[in-house]
What we know:
45% of the residues lie in helices and 16% in strands.
Amino acid sequence: MKIGIICYPTYGGSGVVATELGKSMGAKGHKVHFISYDQPARLDFFSENLFYHEVNVSEYPLFKYPPYEIALSSKIVEIVKSAELDILHVHYAIPHAAAAVMAKYVLREEGINIPIVTTLHGTDITLVGKDATYGPVINYSLNKSDGVTAVSGSLKRDTEDIFNIEKEIRVIPNFVDFDRFKRQPKEHFKLAIAPNNERIVIHTSNFRKVKRVDDVMSVFRLIQQEIPARLLMVGDGPERVRLERECRESNMCDKITFLGKQDAVEEILSVGDLFLMPSETESFGLAALEAMACQVPVVSSNTGGLPEVNIDGVTGFTCNVGDVSEMAKRGVHILSDDDRLATFKANALNHAKTFDIHAVCPIYEKYYEEIIEKHLASVH
Ligand code: GMT
């Protein structure tokens, strides 16, 4: 198959899922063409089956808002023709689904028919998509996509509640690559972070408001009052500067380390005893899954798709959004007993295995085949 993948190039979950899926399809012999405004962060090696096409938006003094969607649509038209693509897979509806639908109609004028699969990732529906600014066009673009998938059952239900979708939304969960995300012996690193064998608590995110990073700090403060612990804050984003300042002001710098953006997250997760994800909304929680693959139990909120990933009482605990004292209590429960911690770690790994990339990638492959077949039948 020749597949076009349209995605954000960033470290964010939707970009990661799109890139890892494309890499996996490439490894199976499919030709995969990534279309984005920058080289996807995880597209970090060369393969004869993987191609990257950059979208450039030309400057003009009249453009207060550079017309990225038109540049993207035009690039899609160009690549569908030159690479003779069989299918387009767009990740994150805004603006990718709308740009792909526009390209599809342009191509149709030239007698080229190409099916589109749109994968919904989360805030493209739950926060941004339902905003009246984008809603009508998103609704239209989803209905004009030939296939729509959601990364969790919860996101499927949210989409059906918010929009008027005429077709079945298929749930295909996110996945993790165990070749990369596995617990590795990192004794030097562990010793440097926790010289007295303190428990290591980790949070990774883009430090946006939706991640409730203040709750991470509050939960940790309560945990370390009960047991010796250290907190590693991984990632960067709008809330980081304020948090670091508050950390200094409350004299917590010896216990909390801000590591910034890190490529080798799996190495950091490898020393973890507990992962915190108290998000306001989370369609899936890929970062929690990656932690679980590295045998780190999770205390998270019970919002969105998180309960599908983090099984309450088994792989960790899920608590109400904002209930920091309950989250801390659950964290202390996991961390305060060696045997119990070992059980949670093993459970986290076992459940993560149900999201193995080698199991989920073929589901997408089959879905592509199904959509191409249906599409061919409809145009003939
Ligand atoms: O929606 C976002 O915040 C952006 C998006 C991303 O690109 O990182 O995250 C969403 O997609 C991820 C991959 O499918 C999911 O794991 C995240 O849960 C989801 N984020 C939210 O729903 C807040």
